[in-house]
From TrEMBL:
It is a multi-pass membrane protein. It is found in: Cell membrane. InterPro entries: ABC_BtuC-like, ABC_transptr_permease_BtuC. It comes from Paracoccus acridae. Belongs to the binding-protein-dependent transport system permease family. FecCD subfamily. The lineage of its organism: Bacteria, Pseudomonadati, Pseudomonadota, Alphaproteobacteria, Rhodobacterales. Its main location: membrane. The chain crosses the membrane at residues 20-39, 69-89, 101-122, 128-147, 159-180, 200-222, 243-268, 288-307, 319-336. It comes from the Bacteria. It holds the Pfam family FecCD. Keywords: Cell membrane, Membrane, Transmembrane, Transmembrane helix, Transport. CDD domains: TM_ABC_iron-siderophores_like. This is ABC transporter permease.
Amino acid sequence: MTADPAISGPARQPGGVRGLWLVAWLAVLGVLCALSVAIGTRAVGLEDIAAALRGQVDSIGQAAVAARIPRTVLAALAGAALGVAGTVMQGVTRNPLADPGILGVNLGASLAVAVGVAWFGIASAQAYIWVAVLGAGATAVFVYAIGSLGRGGPTPLKLALAGMATSVAFVSLVTAVMLSRGDIAGGLHAWQIGGVGGATFARMAHVLPFLTAGFALCLISARKLNLLALGDDLAAGLGERVAVARGLASLGAILLCGATTAVCGPIAFVGLMVPHLGRLLVGVDHRWLLPFSALGGACLLIVSDIAGRLIARPSELDVGIVTAFVGAPFFIWIVRRARVRDL
């Protein structure tokens, strides 16, 4: 990789070191996937796992493994999408508090789906995804507009406050929608928590085109995000079209958030925690940070899913609850660690 003018000084790390970190996290992801398939409310042996991988479901253990495989794949895809989306949002807004959950983007997608189901009777998987993506995009624009009002423009703290206020309002609106439709309230409430249970490869097939497009747009925007980190004036001076760069990267993040929310429900804090860990390990160059965020997000969501199965045995906790339990203290730590005037 050639040197990027946006990455200089101690923030740059040797490519070999960063490569080793990515390889290490790829190995961790492989181990976690194996554990996710093996661990659950029912203990299974290696014979059941091997048989299920061959497509056999002759026993309860094999059926349990067969159900855990798509669940693990969905957790990895959703975690990777949320991790990358959070990194892009932090880069676009230059906001260390940015996260699809904190900025209200996931809940905007959730509200759009709830309204679509309750009032317009949407039922197809494709309709769910399109409505969720549109809701996520509209919310992102709304929060950015609100956070830009007043002196100083869209500061990180104002964006975070606008996003949290929007999230609270949207939670109330989703509740109101569910109360008006008791016949669908149970399904919407379970989905609103955020989880990967009941995953199937058929459900994932519908979101793969949206996730692929989102990942592609975000990765293409890696160098643009490096330039945006220098400030709009300097980025423009280096030949970057700032508005186009922001729009392209934001579109990628919105596609990832909307598609993930459509299939899993709103899951918060993954996009907040993973980018901060990535910067500690591989630096601030988005060409390295985005792949690390994908791996880190996948690992985090799989760990959360495994923890949810173990904590509440013989029942389960959805991953949305586990990530909120871990992410809320992390959010408070980030705010306390940074001086308020610097936010």
